[in-house]
Amino acid sequence: MKSGWRQKAIMRASSIFRSTALRLLACCVAALAWTLLTPAHAAPAAKSAAKPAAQTAAKPAAAPVTLELAHNLGPQLEQRLQEVVERFSKESGVTVTLRPFEKDGKPATLNLMRRAEAGDVLSQPKRFMPLYQMMDKAGARLNSGDIAADLKAGVVDARGRLVALPLVYSTPVLFYNKNAFRKAGLDPEQPPATWFEMQGMLDKLQSAGYACPYTSSWPVWVHIDNVSALSGLPAANDKGQLTFNGLPQVKHIAMMATWTKAGYFRLFGRRDEASDKFNDGECAMITTDSREASDFREARGVELGVAPLPHHDDIYGGRRATLADGASLWIGAGRSVAEYKAAAKLITFLLAPDMQVEMVRRYGSLPFTGAARAAARSALLRDDDRMLDTAFTSLKGQGAQTALRVANIGALSSLTNEELEAVWADKKPAKAALDNAVARGNKLLAAQPLLKRAQPF
Predict the structure, then answer these.
(1) From the CA atom positions of the chain, what is the Rg in Å?
(2) Considering the domain boundaries, does residue 389 fall inside one?
(3) Residue 60 counted as domain residue
(4) In whole angstroms, what is the distance from residue 118 CA to residue 330 CA?
């Protein structure tokens, strides 16, 4: 009886031992597998916590960011832009590469576009990001209140937030060659204030041997958008309907037609082709963007004079203000946070007053903050540069008052140029041409309502 009990107990103990041994063996195998298959950085927390912090592997350095900046400034201004971005790269360590802006291509991180291509942004808003939003993503400060009010047309939204940077803005002025004035017996310090007064001077310049007494770059911008603004009758109303076929505009374009017949006025193209003719000393006077003062300073045989854009003195209410516009910096959508942080550094760099003074020197652009304007005036007046004072006097702080500009929408500008050229080639009367331009333009805007907006977002 007792021996049977002992035998059963021994057999039960043996069974328990075998079971325990098997469990221990399984645990050992699992532990060995964990050690062999688990990477070093996944060691147990208790073990890693016991190690000194100095033994923790260092994080790899962030890859350097390269910013792509697309533009349509042309070769001469591209060289000046290259100098600006190289200075920025030295100070920030961020590399900036330049490339031409492709109308139908994907926008770069940064896109610097002249007003003639502004319609591309208006019609494709999803391809761009508002500037204030980009700065917010980058954790950078941007105070749109610092930007001068007369430079905000098309670059702020309904809440006053900055959607683009008005980087190379200017306003139309009259440049003239003081040497040509002396040759014609005119006072070089008394440029014409009105178009009527200018006509008599053109006659004298022609008699003095100038085959091109007067020319103009950007004819739609100067002679439609700005002549309309100066006359107190904007080229478009508040509803985005074109209205530049009123009596003051018809009278002005008809006057230009008589000047063309008389040989007083010569047209060389729809953009800035005429600027080369003034720069070469061929033309005695030109109306174009104030920023071109920086290009004309070294003009051959030209002693440069600058005056406000002439006005018609028989318009009720007298001379109003011209408009400001130019090349603005837009942000491409869908980029990394690292790229936006680098872009924000560039924006901050460009907003600094000393950099604004440099931009005035390089581009003739209008400084866009109050502090920068004060600094630029102080620095440039020492150089006897009258361009800034002339431009500010012409703007009267109201350069942003008209939202829709004919010159800013490529297709609209093109059809308006067609009608102007027909008048100046003596193929159409001014009234019929402007009526036709307005009708065609309003039809275009009705078909593409996005183009009526001041800005895309």
Answers:
(1) 34
(2) yes
(3) no
(4) 10
